[in-house]
Amino acid sequence: MIIESKVLAIACSEEDGKRAMLYSYKKSFSGFSAKLNASQAIALSKMEDVISVFESRTMKLHTTRSWDFLGLPIPSYTNNRSARFSLHLPSYGDHDVVVAIFDSGVWPESKSFEESEGIGRIPCNWKGKCVKGYRFNPASACNRKLIGARYYLKGFEAQYGALNTTADNPEFRSPRDFLGHGTHTASTAVGAVVHNVGFPTSSSLAKGTARGGAPWARLAVYKVCWGKDYEGKCTDADVMAAFDDALHDGVDVISASFGERPPLIPLFESASAIGSFHAMQRGVSVVFSAGNDGSHPSLVQNVSPWSICVAASTMDRTFPTTIFILNHFSIMGESLITRNIINVKLADAINYFNDGICERENIRKGGKSGKGKVVVCFSTIGQVSIATAQEAVKAINASALIFGAPPTTELPDLDLIPTVRIDIHQATQIRNFLAELPRLPMVEIGVARSVIGKSVAPTVAYFSSRGPSSILPDILKPDISAPGVNILAAWPPETAPTVRPSGKINEEEEEEEEGVKWNFQSGTSMSCPHVSGVVALIKSVHPNWSPAAIRSAIITTATKIDSSGNTILAGGSMKASDPFDIGAGQVNPIMAINPGLIYDITTNDYITFLCNIGYTDQQISNLILNPSPHFCCRQSTATIANFNYPSITLANLRSTTTIRRIVRNVSLNKNAIYFLRVLPPYGVRVQVWPRVLFFSCYRQQISYYITITPLRKSRGRYGFGEIQWFNRFHTVTSPLVVRLAT
């Protein structure tokens, strides 16, 4: 009633006030969302006990083999916690860890969400529920695996109008998933073990066993993202309502594959940052995707220091496809084509597009039809994207596209029109060959094959958003990388795997594509639930660890080496990756479960950090769960650099600086000794004291000090190194990032 009275006080009438209210947040924190005009928002912000008022924004979703590639064996459940801790057997995970997926809903009939043999009763402390809605009956949809399902629509409809449920956009007013994104991410994180899957059928591509990272964990779905122009739109008002419910329900992990493109807003105005701070205070880890804005610097999203931000990388599964130019030669590319393309001719784009630029607006006026042709396009002619080229080639009624692009910038995907990706060298070879012929040659394209272990992996996905953080450069983001390219996971069979702008699938492939239950998707949206699954595994073995401790375990055990023994490459550039590409490196689930040492952070540490970066008392109160009415920043001599983050970043080093880090012994060996190894960034000297850490008991904490001295003049250039503590059993690595400002 107190919350509602605020709206009534600024509304023209009681009826207008009630109509303006969207949500009242009162389960986990106090607040509300409402439709207000500018003057009403200003009046509300001036009320005595209102901490802050901010506009609800809209975020977008970031769109089998992967767990084997990460070294995680197919599990067999055991109640023996010691066995799970030591991992002498492939037995891990816990029925009583609950993973929340904030996304576009779930397809509950998928085998990924069936009860596994031996699964116990729903935890007695679980307060969540399955909410009834259109084509979603809790009695049949939910079980001991899928234990919660809610949906939030008020914010979306306030922003975009009534939900479109027409035939072209058959969204479900319920937790049921239409977009497919939520089903896919949930399956990746905690999907049950399902044998004999593949795309589009079990006898086709990527056939094998599908599973989530924590297949024994429980699943709770919070549908906050809705289809709008075939994108997933997620409003702040709906996201905050989901956080309010999820923290009350009793989830252990929250996975959220969405974000807002830069310019980023301050943390105290971000629903994701506020909600994840509340979660951290409740001991709940929150995992976000880094974004899909590509290889330019400072585009990384979801940069709050209390959450985990995940970049995307490839794995060692490829889909080679042979292009046969009949009676001449063949070229190997990559695709996800599942049936042969025959009796067609090969043509250069110059025959159909002005200057050979593969865009719809460049189609030659009165030009020929491309029917029965395979058209060769270049990303470098007109700087066209593969999606633009596909739309253009489909518009001239061509049978397929061969797309030439720099290596690692284009990866096989489900396409608007059958498409084979080749590199610039191969495409140039084809183009020069066509220029010498008097007539178009016949060409055949074979079906793609699944090949494992023959390619160097991982590499950073070209689309994965890079650091440094544009609003908090002293905190390294992204934190970690995980597989996010061509991930096969569960899919709603009523949703086509390749959705067209019209809402329809390619008519020639309609029969093949409908009814697909497993689908390929790429994006940091797919890498995020991989790490969420790892967080659930760690939580199952270490139920009392804080979100910071779990993040530390993931960061300090990551690997920066690919399958060839070299540094992981950054896709799109072919340079060696650095922490702005992949954070600490590729996630290593087995090592993260037993990291040896952790860097822990308390709520008070986060608050001190916010005080030190200049946030006001009012702004910090907006982040804190149930803040004191008399909250104020305490005087502190600590510097930002002393914030006990497992990665170390100095974004403005002018002179010699000494910082402190605190590590805690969490290994089974209570009498542990760790030795130091330092790789200094270029242009600085790094000294660490002490050089040996002696632990005599479990959970003992030891401080060490790092002195960093500039050795040259520079302004704005970053250098990368690392600090490593190691012994026979553990290697604990912290990325060291230094930007000189001398």
UniProtKB/TrEMBL annotation:
The keyword Signal applies. GO terms for biological process: proteolysis; response to symbiotic bacterium. Residues 642-738 form the Subtilisin-like protease fibronectin type-III domain. CDD domains: Peptidases_S8_3 (cd04852). GO terms for cellular component: extracellular region. Keywords: Hydrolase, Protease, Secreted, Serine protease, Signal. Residues 14-62 form the Inhibitor I9 domain. The active site is at residues 103, 181, 525. SUPFAM superfamilies: Subtilisin-like. This is Uncharacterized protein. It comes from Cucumis sativus (Cucumber).
